[in-house]
Amino acid sequence: MTSKPAKCPVCGKPAQAEFRPFCSKRCADVDLGRWFSGDYRIPGAPAPIENDEKAERNDER
Ligand SMILES: [Zn+2]
């Protein structure tokens, strides 16, 4: 009855007052994570961290 409910910028669902402007804690975390990653354009795929061992080996002389 008040103003239109804002949409969650992450998933597009109606935002909840408790988590405004998001619909849930999860979406809030997702958005926060994007900002922390320093690149807001990343669609959300986490970079695989499986080259750790190889990188170490490549470093040996
Ligand atoms: Zn959401």
Automatic annotation (TrEMBL):
Cofactor note: Binds 1 zinc ion.
Source organism of the structure: Acetobacter pasteurianus NBRC 3278
Entry protein name: DNA gyrase inhibitor YacG
Assembly information from the UniProt record: Interacts with GyrB.
Metal-binding listed as a keyword: yes
Binding, Zn(2+): 8, 11, 23, 27
Gene: yacG
GO biological process, one term: regulation of DNA-templated transcription
GO MF assignments: DNA topoisomerase type II (double strand cut, ATP-hydrolyzing) inhibitor activity; zinc ion binding
PANTHER family noted in UniProt: DNA GYRASE INHIBITOR YACG (PTHR36150)
